[in-house]
Amino acid sequence: MQYHQLGQTVLSYRKKNGMTIREFADYAGISTSLISQIERGQANPSLSVLELIAKALHVPLFTLFIHDIDTSTLISRKHNRKKIYRENKDHIVYDVLTPDFMKARIDMLMMELNPHAVTTESHYCHKDKEEIAVMMRGQGYVELEGEEYELLEGDVVRIPPNVRHRFLNKSNDSIHVLFVLTPSLI
Predict the structure, then answer these.
(1) Is the pTM of this model over 0.85?
(2) Minimal CA–CA distance to 112: which of 137, 132, 81?
(3) How far apart are CA 61 and CA 8, in angstroms?
(4) What is the pLDDT of residue 106?
(5) How far apart are CA 163 and CA 144, in angstroms?
(6) CA-CA distance, 180 to 81, in Å (whole number)?
(7) Sign of torsion, CA 86 90 96 101?
(8) pLDDT confidence of residue 17
(9) Weakly modelled stretches of the chain, pLDDT under 50
């Protein structure tokens, strides 16, 4: 582990809270010299000390280690992506853009919808997700609660939780739609 990064994280959080080292040390119940050594990357703090620091900063313990990420794992290579097929494998393919190992709170999918196809015969409805869809290539349609809307390249549609929806391609060319799904705020 690189203690310098851990120290920089503690220093950053402490400053965001507007505390001096002495104020923070008193609040956390840790000596000022130990806090100083941690922030300079010169100490190997125990788990119990790290728990005290996290509690005093009002952050989960794991956030102190956020910077210890292998940045090469943050890239999703096109040739390694998973594909998701829906009801009819001939007409719709989703390319999963968010790597599984990131465990992100956001999902990104690229849908290719073949000519004269629909995403589903009925509709989708997400109970706990908010969705944004961007028409990346072509001209298609979105049906929201039974009402149909034309989408041109570059158009964006927001789909709140519990809204019945589906996408339609009435053209002779494939269309591509980028989806971003996040946990609902409601």
Answers:
(1) no
(2) 137
(3) 15
(4) 80
(5) 7
(6) 16
(7) positive
(8) 87
(9) 1, 101-102, 186
